[in-house]
Amino acid sequence: MRFLINAKRFDAVSDILIKPLIFISIAFLIIGLLFALYLSPEDYQQGSTVRIMYIHVPSAWIALMTFLVMTVYSIIGLAFRMPFGFIINKAVAPIGAIFTLICIVSGSLWGKPMWGTWWVWDARLTSVSILFVFYLIIIFINKSFENNLVREKISAIFILIGSVNLPIIKFSVDWWNTLHQPATISKLSKPSIDPSMITPLIIMTIAFISIAALIAILRVKTEIITRENI
Amino acid sequence: MLLAQNITLHRSGKEIFKDINISLGDGKIIILKGKNGSGKTSLLKTILNILEPSSGLIYWKGKLIYKNINDYYNNLTYIADKTTSLRQLTLYENIKIWRKIFLSNVSYDQIKNILSILKLDNYLNQKINTLSLGETKKFELLRLIIENKKFWVLDEPFTNLDFESIKIIEQTFLDHVNNNGFIIFSSHQKPDIKNVEEIILDKL
Amino acid sequence: MLLAQNITLHRSGKEIFKDINISLGDGKIIILKGKNGSGKTSLLKTILNILEPSSGLIYWKGKLIYKNINDYYNNLTYIADKTTSLRQLTLYENIKIWRKIFLSNVSYDQIKNILSILKLDNYLNQKINTLSLGETKKFELLRLIIENKKFWVLDEPFTNLDFESIKIIEQTFLDHVNNNGFIIFSSHQKPDIKNVEEIILDKL
Amino acid sequence: MKFIKKIINFYFREYKVNLSGIFDILTNITFFFISIFIFIFSVGPEKETLSLLGVGILWTLLLLSSTLSLRKFYQDDFENGSLIVLHLNGFSFELISILKTISHFFFVQFPFMMSIPFASVLLDISLEKMYDLFLSFVIGSFILSCLGSISSSMNLLNKRNYLLGSVMVLVFSIPIIIFSVGLINIEDNFNSLINILIGLLLIIFAINPWASGACLKLAIQNN
Amino acid sequence: MKFIKKIINFYFREYKVNLSGIFDILTNITFFFISIFIFIFSVGPEKETLSLLGVGILWTLLLLSSTLSLRKFYQDDFENGSLIVLHLNGFSFELISILKTISHFFFVQFPFMMSIPFASVLLDISLEKMYDLFLSFVIGSFILSCLGSISSSMNLLNKRNYLLGSVMVLVFSIPIIIFSVGLINIEDNFNSLINILIGLLLIIFAINPWASGACLKLAIQNN
Ligand code: HEM
Ligand SMILES: Nc1ncnc2c1ncn2[C@@H]1O[C@H](COP(=O)(O)OP(=O)(O)OP(=O)(O)O)[C@@H](O)[C@H]1O
Ligand SMILES: Nc1ncnc2c1ncn2[C@@H]1O[C@H](COP(=O)(O)OP(=O)(O)OP(=O)(O)O)[C@@H](O)[C@H]1O
Ligand SMILES: [Mg+2]
Ligand SMILES: [Mg+2]
User: Within 10 A of E11 (CB to CB), how many other CB atoms are there?
Assistant: First the structure.
């Protein structure tokens, strides 16, 4: 597992991973979309708007996961003084931002038929929008600070502070009374969701994750190359 | 008093100067020469402990400067290549601020005296931003007197000055050196002072 | 081409200079000399129609300058005593902006050529605020080439420059004059150019 | 032709000076949205309050951000001498002030304008009101830009004019804001009020070049 | 003794420098009141709504106007080289940032603080609440000054995107505003909330000199 913290190893391992990832992304995306759009049943309450879920939920998970990854790598970068952590941070931030945006937009689109408005200021929605702001600021930091050392440290510290937001997002539905759906799958007990919906959800999740990983790998590789040149 | 051994500086990965040795003590003047971009300003800033040399050590009174920084800074005046007076205030207000900030014990009479030597006495209630370039520079050099320190570090002190003012500054340097002060400065012009050591920086 | 007759200037009620006469035309260089605060910068600004003389008239091609201001400004370049390049941008970006603002038809190749003569070609992607003082000044002088005008007005063009760069600028002046351009500039240094007319301003 | 090219090139410069790219614009907009968040955190998320306050919040934010960016209007170009260089290259002071006013409108106010639709969703402002808001905003913010140009050119002169400039902006912007906010909330006489606003805009737009130009000229002479 | 004298003299300088910006401060305060009028105007003059929302509105306006004045924090002294001169005269970067933070609190936040009583009258905030508001504002604005110091010293390293510092401050002030407004409106746990605020203040006040000092040092090295 050394490749997770070492630039050279990462470069080598990622070369092996790229092709399978491309395959998985395409295959699962096609299968997932087929399931999501045609094969899965309509919800008895929500009608076909339930299909938004297959976009919404995976992208929400990836948005959270990406920030978690950045938090871990910030610790690696700051505490263990491994610059590879900062490389990952820089490469991964825009991906997280985009999936957060997808999550928010799909959620809003879902919210209009379900709740009657595009947006409410409930805890989940608010905390996710703050997550988005954090992503944006991290990108801005990466774009506008010239001194590499400073840039890396500032963004890593910012990520660490921002990670306080993650549990708030995750547990907001339990802590406060919100309009938003509480977690269904992550419960340890039996999932409160129909298996016919779970299958496409899982397939789409795998597809999304592999797409995100693919982009991340490509961005990390370019970052490694440009650094070596400088 | 000041001893720099083999200092080398890199900025943004570029080597600016290499293996410079400086030794400065009572009554000595060093002039730094070199082409534009050869690193004169950077060398002065390195001596001032503002930039960190990538290798080499700098001593003040036998101790490394950053270990002796209070005493070091208590004994030096730095006149940068730009003016630091507050442009929206008058000369008088600036002098007042300087006297306070530097805890100076130079009296107003002395200062007025020097101002009249520098031909600035008529402008006392004028704002800095209405002075001419050379007048601003002369006013900045007044800090040498107000701070009243032993070690002077100056970056291009003669730019924009007319011939007479240059003479006055040179005389001030000589007086200072005769009082056991010591000076390092950079300049493109050759000053008319005897017994100065020259350090020439070559653009690499 | 340019003719100034008996111009006198007052600033804030103070007389700065009096009864100055200037006549400039193809192939001529005038150097303004004088002590600090004698009004060199003010005189140049008066010629540029930025300051209004309290008496006296200035003509351009036989007409009063403010009546012929478009043609006048279309034919002159002014390099002030401070640099006007945008410090947070790179040299290249500054050049791009200048070329556009001045509607310049000087090609990038020519500019690169001159940059390499001025030894600035390595800094093309560096920001102005990381250049040394002399390099910034040299870069400012590049405007002479980019604007490509006939009449050059320069305020202390040699400050902060090293010996070699001064030589290059002098050579540029000579070339310009030989191409029927004409120049007026202020300086405390004596340039190494023959046949320049000196105007000496006395501090009143 | 040459004139148009010059103006286009002026804006190229303004763009380079004000923004070093898309990220600066995004930062502006992010700032705006975070401010909205903060309002919501402090007044609470109830829908009724929000739609009541929405228009006021948006206008306040616009006012604050545009006023506080005014100091930069001419200051930088004035201090580093670019203003003289531009002037000597065929941009009269009047032209400069017109161009700068438009540039301020474009680079400072425009991003706000673009985010009004999204902000309206967040603040639960109805589509109709949003339309009114947008219209009054375009006109009002242009008036603010003109006022800003005049006052910040005055500010270059000296301390006493400093106060004058600021007071002037205040005195003029109060009726504009009252109009604009009133415009949206009192729907009966939308048209007559918007006509008044347009009239104000025209007057101030006509005065601006002369006033600012004269101040710029004086400021350069005194420096 | 000498140290204390130095600090007093530092504030003499700050006073001289900032006094020329007094009109700026006045303008800011006037705009602050204008913004309050905007709100009264858009909410309508019903006393209940006003006093309900008043605290939140006041806090947000204070926050925004003080954030937007952050640009001046170190910028001027940095650019004209005074920072180096001060440093070479025995003011370590850490000391400078502490002194500057206090000076910002004093010259920027204090005038706002003074205007709270008047604003409270306008917004019909009760005397008790006003007292709470005042207390929370003193602590909160000091936190803001510290945050401002950190972010604007960071911004010296970043010469392109000048708003980024303000954006960062705004994000961090979200929890402050939640606490402070909560403090005043939910009266049960006033003490525990104010303790949290004070705790935050102490943490950030301790971090500030190191963070700002390091950034100032780096900024000077890179210039
Ligand atoms: C813009 C608005 C919305 C945002 C920002 C948002 C955000 C999120 C986030 C962050 C998650 C992941 C939570 C976790 O991993 O535990 C999530 C999950 C989910 N959201 Fe949303 N959401 C929005 C609107 C909606 C709407 C309108 C609905 C449907 C009525 C909805 C239904 C769900 C469901 C069913 C899940 C899956 C919960 C689970 O199984 O764990 N969301 N949303
Ligand atoms: N922050 C920086 N990053 C990269 N390069 C820099 C930086 N600061 C200065 N330099 C470069 O270092 C070199 C030396 O600069 P310095 O200011 O020391 O020169 P100098 O000898 O004082 O020149 P001058 O005679 O023109 O004042 C220059 O080429 C400059 O471009
Ligand atoms: N706005 C103003 N108000 C009052 N006096 C002024 C103003 N501007 C300049 N002066 C004075 O006019 C005199 C001439 O200034 P000017 O800048 O023309 O001198 P200069 O010959 O260029 O000097 P230097 O060699 O120092 O550049 C100076 O004494 C200056 O103090
Ligand atoms: Mg230098
Ligand atoms: Mg001059």
Answer: 16
Atom of ligand 2 nearest to the CA of C132: 17
C-alpha radius of gyration, chain A, whole number: 19
The rounded radius of gyration (Å) of the Cα atoms in chain B is 17
What is d(CA A154, CA A147) in angstroms, rounded to the nearest whole number? 11
Output the tens digit of pLDDT for each of chain D's 223 residues.
Answer: 788 888 888 888 888 887 766 777 788 788 888 888 888 888 887 777 787 778 888 888 877 777 666 667 888 889 888 999 999 998 999 999 999 999 888 887 887 788 888 888 888 888 888 888 888 888 888 988 898 898 888 888 865 556 666 667 767 777 777 777 776 666 666 777 788 889 989 999 999 999 999 999 999 988 7
DSSP A103-151: HHHHHHHHHHHHHSSS----HHHHHHHHHHHHHHHHHHHHHH---HHHH
Q: What is the pTM of this model?
A: 0.89
Closest residue CA from atom 8 of ligand 3: B130
The number of folded domains in chain E is 1
Of D27, D42, D63, nearest to E35 by CB-CB distance is: D63
Interface test with D, best of E18, E22, E23, E179 (most D CBs within 10 A): E23
What phi, psi does B182 have (nearest 5°)?
A: -150, 155
Nearest CA distance, E115 vs chain A (angstrom): 31
Q: Nearest C-alpha to atom 13 of ligand 2 is from which residue?
A: B37
Q: Most A CBs within 10 Å: which of D28, D33, D126, as the mutation test of the A interface?
A: D33
E56: exposed, middle or buried (Cβ count in 10 Å: 0-12, 13-18, 19+): buried
The ipTM value here is 0.88
**pLDDT per residue over B58-87, tens digit each?**
999 999 998 999 999 999 999 998 899 998
Pairing of strands B29-34, B55-60: unpaired
> Which residue among B161, B164, B188 places its CB closest to the CB of C162?
B188
The DSSP bridge partners found for residue B154 are B79, B185
pLDDT per residue, tens digit, chain E (223 aa), is 788 888 898 888 888 887 766 666 777 777 788 778 777 776 777 777 777 778 888 888 878 877 777 767 888 889 889 999 999 998 999 999 999 999 988 888 888 888 888 888 888 888 888 888 888 889 988 998 999 999 889 888 887 777 788 888 888 888 888 888 777 776 667 777 788 889 999 999 999 999 999 999 999 988 7
Quote the ligand 5 centre to A98 CA distance (angstroms). 55
Q: Whose CA is nearest to atom 22 of ligand 2?
A: B41
Ligand 3 centroid vs D99 CA: distance in angstroms?
31
Distances (CA, A) of B173 to B180, B196, E222: 11, 11, 31
Q: Which residues of B15-30 are buried (b: 16+ CB within 10 A; e: fewer)?
A: ebbbebebebeeebbb
Question: Cβ of D80 under 8 Å from any chain C Cβ?
Answer: yes
C partners (3+ CB pairs within 8 A) are B, D, E
Edge-to-edge strands of the sheet including B196-201? B76-79, B151-155, B182-186, B29-34, B196-201
Ordered structural domains, chain B, with CATH: 1-75+182-204 (3.40.50.300)
Atom of ligand 3 nearest to the CA of D221: 1
- The number of beta carbons lying within 10 Å of the beta carbon of residue A19 is 9
Interface residues from chain B to C (CB-CB < 8 Å) = 11-12, 34-37, 40-41, 81, 119, 130-135, 137-138, 156, 159-165, 188, 203
Question: Which residues are within 8 A (CB) of E1 and not within 5 positions of it... i.e. 6 or more apart?
Answer: none
Cβ contact (<8 Å) for D30 and A140?
Answer: yes
Alpha-carbon span A37 to A50, nearest angstrom: 10
Chain C residues whose beta carbon lies within 8 Å of the beta carbon of residue D89: 73, 101-102, 147
How is residue B70 written in tokens?
């209070």
The answer to whether the CB atoms of C52 and D221 lie below 8 A apart is yes
